[in-house]
Amino acid sequence: MNQTLAFNEDFGRVLTPDTVQIKRVLPGPIERVWAYLTESDKRGQWLATGDMDLRVGGEFELTWHHSDLSPDKQPAPERYKRHEGHSMRGRITRYEPPRVLAYTWGETGSSEVTFELTPQGNDVLLVLTHSHLPTRGDVRGVSGGWHSHLRVLIDRLNDRVPESFWKTHEQVEQEYARLIPGD
Hints:
- The chain has a seven-stranded antiparallel sheet with strand order 1-2-7-6-5-4-3, covered by helices on one side.
- It is α+β, with helices and mostly antiparallel strands.
- The chain has helices spanning 30-38, 40-43, 136-157, 165-179, and strands at residues 13-16, 19-27, 59-63, 87-96, 100-105, 111-120, 123-131.
């Protein structure tokens, strides 16, 4: 996995063996998208709830309720049941409102997620980069997870009812397994 893998536009790109990047064009304005990254009630509609101490070094805790991201409340597949109601602590590493938010990911803080927002007319380019992932399995897993969460975010920003997170995740997880083979 030394070369960059480029997937079709909907799928992420493996930039290095431990980094994946996903790009999406979202309806703006940028301040609205920023609110969906930083405000617990809005973030909870597509990712996870939890207040953030919005400053570099600020701590936070995110709590996931994947089955609640859509009115179509399908239960988590057996292998993901432990993720329902799961919480994770992190620390903000970059905070440049309303353009860049980055934070540690996971209990050990070993990986990092960076959201970069760039206005494009009435839209906003979101570049999500998840780096320092320990294994190819982690790269594959977070790729499918982010892909599914971003699909919910796009629906929310377009005032559409999102499909079940787990239904979407099952579909994209299979494709990422094909695109990013095992360790």
